[in-house]
Amino acid sequence: MTDIREILDNLENNNAEEEQLLLEKNLLADEALWPDQKRSRSLHIVENTEPERVLLLGLSNHRSPGELDPQASLQELAGLTETAGGLVIHSLMANRDRPDPAHYFGKGKLEEIKDLIAEKVIDLVIIDDELSVRQQNQLDQRLPCRVIDRTALILQIFADHAHTREGKLQIELAQLSYLLPRLSGKGKELSRLGGGIGTRGPGESQLEKDRRHIRQRIDNLKSEIEQIRRQRMVNRGRREKNQVPVLALVGYTNAGKSSLLNTLTDAGVKAEDKLFATLDPTTRRFRLEETEVLLTDTVGFIQQLPHSLISAFRATLEEAIYADVLIHVADSSHKDLAGQIKTVHRVLEEVGCEEKPMIHVFNKIDLLPDPLDVQHYLSDYQPAVMISAKTGEGIDQLKKLLAQHLPQPLVTKQFVLSQDQGGLLNRFYHLGSVSQVNYEADRITGTVILPKHQAEQYRQYLTEDEINDQQQ
User: Fold this and answer.
1) Which of 13, 118, 343, 381 has the greatest count of CB atoms below 10 A from its CB?
2) Residue 328 domain-assigned (yes or no)
3) Do 68 and 163 belong together in one domain?
4) What is the CATH number of the domain that holds 459?
5) In this structure, is residue 95 part of a structural domain?
6) pLDDT-derived band of residue 115, with 50, 70 and 90 as boundaries?
7) How wide is the angle at C-alpha 292 spanned by C-alphas 288 and 294, nearest 5°?
8) How would DSSP label each residue in 51-102?
């Protein structure tokens, strides 16, 4: 069973033997606290020979702007549960406008849930929301089986599906960021193991060690991910120097991005009809008319995507941030297509991609009874095209559309800025590739490679002439 203690134990592989012994010693205290392992809180679905029997719970009237309607959200949670290996036995919607701050549900509804758990022989309850630490602790105490929230479920799926070193680092960072504030819920319980007036209980002491341990690991993970980000910057600079356009596939999870990547590039990427089947980015070259381009598949988005995941996967999402054109793949057969589109736009805005050139691709038209049912989306989200990555319908039209929106050729320019124009220099770093920067007494000079239309926009600061110390 994977719970908070086991996650802490896994961290020991990265530390000295002395730290390992400290945590292993404290496992005895955990066994005394939770002899019934069903009561321990888990971040993951337990891997057994038999799938866990799961009860899904949500609120019927609780919805933030731009999110899926509650019923569609609960159905999506069922898909996530199946992806994680759970067996959904029953779903229940409580009629509330907002969660109870202490128990999430009302006390009467909790009694109904307890009876349902006994009747259906439920192993695990999953809440269609992110629980506060207080709500999580109260539900753990009041319900006779394990309870996790939507965020914990998504974190497990990411952990199960990440295969590259980068992906594993990012998901570990997200898990620990999620775990750290939840350690406080066990501080009082652990402190009851010993100590007294004027002393510090051994449980509280261990809690502080766990916190320090996690913070150190988080710092190490951030450092490693930053190194990967810097390497991506180097590779990106080389691509820009070679003037290779980059297209990034973005969209809601299970919209068909990997299938489209395979159709366009023969990449052979595994494409499954599952949520979050792809987590590690894949980049392939292919020719678009007379131009060779790079096409990158990125992680799918979802409503209520945990902020810790957005932060942890920022290095991966930078492939979208620095792409020349975004290809937003949407599942045209989904009943809440508009809600999914809004979710993707909101996440793109969070990572700073809201102003990127974007082509909307409405996929899976082979699953529509009548393609005219979604025809109005083509005018609402221009430029747009309807395709089926599975059958190939509309692919030629998509290629023509992509060719029309490829970025203009890159140009190399010299720049001259005053010392108080550092913000403009940062803008050059964001838009292009900057090199040979010199900070002089009264100016900043250097070389920048920019798309032609952006070089024209900043032409008053740019020149094709070599800049030397005598130029003013």
Assistant:
1) 343
2) yes
3) yes
4) 3.30.70
5) yes
6) very high
7) 95
8) PPEEEEEEETT---TTSPPHHHHHHHHHHHHHHTT-EEEEEEEE--SS-BTT
Nearest alpha carbon to residue 418 among 439, 449, 437? 439
Q: Which of 389, 403, 405 is nearest to 264 (CA)?
A: 389
Give yes or no: residues 83 and 51 share one domain.
yes
Cis omega before residue 245 (within 30°)?
no
Type of residue found at 442: D
| Run of H or E including 127 | strand 124-127
350's tokens: 């969070």
- Give the C-alpha separation, 354 to 70, whole Å: 26
The whole-angstrom separation of Cα 388 and Cα 29 is 56
Question: How does pLDDT run across 301-317, given as a tens digit for each residue?
Answer: 887 777 667 766 665 67
Domain co-membership, 347 together with 443 = no
In DSSP notation, 292-331 reads EEEEEE-PPB-TT--HHHHHHTHHHHHHHHT-SEEEEEEE
Considering the entire predicted model, what is its pTM? 0.66
Query: Does residue 325 share a domain with residue 417?
Result: no
Q: Based on the fold, state whether residues 438 and 373 are members of the same structural domain.
A: no
In a domain, 235, yes or no: no
95 to each of 61, 105, 351, 422, how far by Cα in Å?
A: 6, 9, 34, 54
Give the per-residue pLDDT at 292. Answer: 86
E strand intervals along 332-432: 358-363, 384-386, 410-418
